[in-house]
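Task card 7
Instruction: Convert sequence to C-alpha cells.
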Amino acid sequence: MAFVKACALSELEDDTPKRVELGGVPVSVVRTEGEVFAINDICSHANVSLSEGEVEDCMIECWLHGSSFDLRTGKPSGLPATRPVPVYPVKIEGDDVLVSVTQES
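Output:
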C-alpha cells in the first residue's frame, strides 16, 4: 500500500473537508472527533463534490440531495444514495497527512 502526502495536518480545520487530488483520484480529507479520515470526494448518487458539504457526527453530507456518508466506512445513511463511496487508509507522520488510494486486489 503506497501512501502519499495529501496535506499538512495543520491545514485541516475540525469538521471542514479539504479536497485534494491524489493520483487522479479526488479525495476529501476530514479531521473530526480527534481523527483524520479520507473519503472519495464524489457522491455515489450524483457527480457532486462531498467536500462542499458539512461534517457532523463522523458523517459527511452531500450538499445537493442531503445523503450523508460515514467517514469510517463510506456507507450512506439513507436515500437518495444507496451505494457507498470508497474510503482510504490514513497515516499521520509529524505534520503530514498521508493517504493511500491504491486498491488492493
